[in-house]
Amino acid sequence: MAEKSNPRNELLTFRVRDYMTAEPQTLRVEQSLLEAVLMLRRASLRHIPIMEDGRLVGVLSDRDVARVAPSLLAPLSPDEYNRVFEDTPVGRVMSKNPISTTADAPLAEAVGLLYENRLGCLPVLEEGKLIGIITRVDMLRALHDLIASPASASSSEL
């Protein structure tokens, strides 16, 4: 009698590369906060890796942007409000020296890093080069695969 595969055990063997977003969009450290906001909105992103001289130096999140944005209740003209975004380089706002992982790291290890450090993403590096990013949303997709697989396997056996 053939042994049935256990989707949960299969998922536990997955690596970061199985769920990461390869070749994420990035910005350079000197680019403006306005460029970051436009990228976040256009691409529906929450995190942008920040590069300097071809190496990862930080991550900018939508929360970082919200933290430094002037209040709409402040007595600023629209031009002054926009100037804050145009004149602020992302290097002043980003989280520096981000915790990262590798593509071959077990997915469970990446989950542990995200959970223990209360992070929204982990840049994925290979030999010091940014090759991807894995986020909480990617982890939800992995969780979905974990809990949806037994249900779909059960229904296909009927």
List the helices and strands and how they pair.
Elements lengths: L6 H6 L8 E2 L4 E2 L4 H10 L4 E6 L2 E7 H7 L9 H10 L7 E2 L10 H11 L3 E6 L2 E7 H21 L2
Parallel strand pairs: 2-3
Antiparallel strand pairs: 1-7, 3-4, 4-5, 6-7
Helix pairs in contact: 2-4
What this model shows, in words?
By secondary structure, this protein is of the alpha+beta class. It has one domain: CBS-domain (Roll), CATH 3.10.580. The chain has 6 helices and 7 strands. Helix 2 links the parallel strand 2 and strand 3. It is elongated and about 55 Å long. 21% of the residues are buried.
Question: Which features would summarize this protein structure in a list?
Answer:
single chain, 158 residues, alpha+beta, CBS-domain, 4-stranded mixed sheet, elongated
Main sheet strand line-up: 2-3-4-5
Radius of gyration: 20 Å
Oligomer: single chain
Measured between the Cα atoms of the first and last residue, the distance is 19 Å
- What's the overall geometry? elongated
